[in-house]
Amino acid sequence: MARAKRHYIPGQIWHITHRRHKRDFLLGFVRDRRNFLQWLLEAKRRYGLVILNYIVTSNHIHLLVVDDSDREVIPKSIQLIAGRTGQEYNQRKNRKGAYWEDRYHATAIESGEHLLRCIIYIDLNMTRAGKVHHPEEWHHSGYREIQQPRRKHALIAYDRLQALAGFNSYEAFRMQHKAWVSDAISNAGTERDSKWTRSIAVGSKEFVEQTKAELGIQAKGRKVSGRGDVFQLRESVVAYNVDSGTKNNVIEPQNAYFWNKDEVIAIR
């Protein structure tokens, strides 16, 4: 199959979503959600993955990360996390077959207010699903960690999160974060919004147009749409494909990342 050069934008914020195979509830046990977070922490330690927010539900995950100085950090991290969680679950349950769907989606998010909105959207995932009344009730998410920063075993890069969200202090960011979540719940602002999970990019018109320009031929035919201060680059879906054993991973015609059998072969 013909391949194009893999896209890479240094310093870009990515909202990554991925579902269990056939959307099964394979993360329905607390121990499996904890296991995912333990491997997420290991990816941070081993590769320097910069994490801004996360949530692990019973059948899918959200990760908000920064693509920093090394293009291999995110693919190696996803390979480690998803591969080990799938292997360990299958071994424990004497199960065979795919643990994850064959691809996951990545949306470029602009820093500042759009980043904060994406964070809130991730936080409200289980509230939106009707599983909890408030995100603080769901233990396997970044909301609790943002509001109560850890001294040990921290997953979130607090200083980086504060800076990218556009605040002068972490306390100011924390208070605004808490207020926006409360306002969203009070004003029925928890509805699903596909732009955060189905677009190529979300942000200001200038940001989205710049992202489209950087994608070049990969974004050909995609249109920038939106109004006010929120725009998006919609897709018929643009994807990242990964082939184990190759150094130069690539973008295919969809925004998806492919896994190899029971072991995860990650992408970026």
Poorly predicted ranges: 1-6, 21-27, 237-268
Secondary-structure element string: EEHEEHEHHHHHHEHEEEE
User: How far apart are the termini?
Assistant: 19 Å
Gross morphology:
globular
Main sheet record? 7 strands, mixed
Structural class: alpha+beta
How many structural domains? 1
- Per DSSP E runs of 2 or more residues, the count of β-strands stands at 10
Identify the strand order in the major beta sheet: 3-4-2-5-6-8-7
- Fraction in beta strands: 15-25%
List the helices and strands and how they pair.
Layout: E1 4-5, E2 12-19, H1 30-47, E3 50-56, E4 60-67, H2 73-93, E5 105-109, H3 113-123, H4 125-128, H5 142-147, H6 158-165, H7 170-186, H8 195-198, E6 201-203, H9 205-215, E7 224-227, E8 230-233, E9 239-241, E10 250-252
Parallel strand pairs: 5-6
Antiparallel strand pairs: 1-10, 2-4, 2-5, 3-4, 6-8, 7-8, 9-10
Helix pairs in contact: 1-2, 3-7
Structure notes:
By secondary structure, this protein is α+β, with helices and mostly antiparallel strands. The chain has a single domain (4-252), classed as Transposase IS200-like (Alpha-Beta Plaits). It contains 9 helices and 10 strands. The protein has helices at 30-47, 73-93, 113-123, 125-128, 142-147, 158-165, 170-186, 195-198, 205-215; strands at 4-5, 12-19, 50-56, 60-67, 105-109, 201-203, 224-227, 230-233, 239-241, 250-252. The strands form 2 sheets. Strands 3-4-2-5-6-8-7 form a 7-stranded mixed β-sheet, with helices on both faces. The protein has a 3-stranded antiparallel β-sheet with strand order 1-10-9, with no helix packed on it. A hairpin with a 2-residue loop joins β7 (224-227) and β8 (230-233). The longest helix is centred in the N-terminal third of the chain and has 21 residues, at 73-93. It is globular and about 45 Å long. It starts with a strand and ends in a 16-residue tail after the last strand. The model is unreliable at 1-6, 21-27 and 237-268 (pLDDT under 50).
